[in-house]
Amino acid sequence: MARNKKTREPIPKEFKTIEELQKFWDTHSVADYDDLFHDVHFEVDLRARTNLVAIEPTLMQELVKRARAMGVTAETLVNLWLSQQLREPA
Question: Where are the alpha helices (DSSP H) in 3-56?
């Protein structure tokens, strides 16, 4: 869909729905609008890690409920409970 940039359709300033946005980009190429792009610079710390543990949904609901009652986040409550358990001998 290589169009002459002089005759390309302008990108709408606003899309009313996600579907409208999808339809536009399904029928247009970003290559036709490359002059509108600009370089972006950012840094990524690859050493930073996120450890994820899957929690059964009903347990998570109960965890969140208890954490709120205690005035802490679910993450804080989990860390508190784990640190208590890990201090006890196996």
Answer: 18-26
Global confidence as pTM: 0.45
Note whether 78 and 59 are same-domain residues: yes
65-86 confidence digits (pLDDT tens)? 999 999 999 999 999 999 999 9
User: Which residues span the domain enclosing 14?
Assistant: 1-42
- Please list, in sequence order, all residues whose beta carbon lies within 8 angstroms of the beta carbon of residue 2, skipping any fewer than 6 positions away: 29, 31, 32
Number of structural domains the chain divides into: 2
| CA nearest neighbour of 55 among 67, 47, 45 | 67
Residues 67, 89 within the same domain: yes
Convert 33-58 to b/e letters by CB count within 10 Å (16 or more is b). eeeeeeeeeeeeeeeeeeeeeeeeee
- Same domain for 55 and 27? no
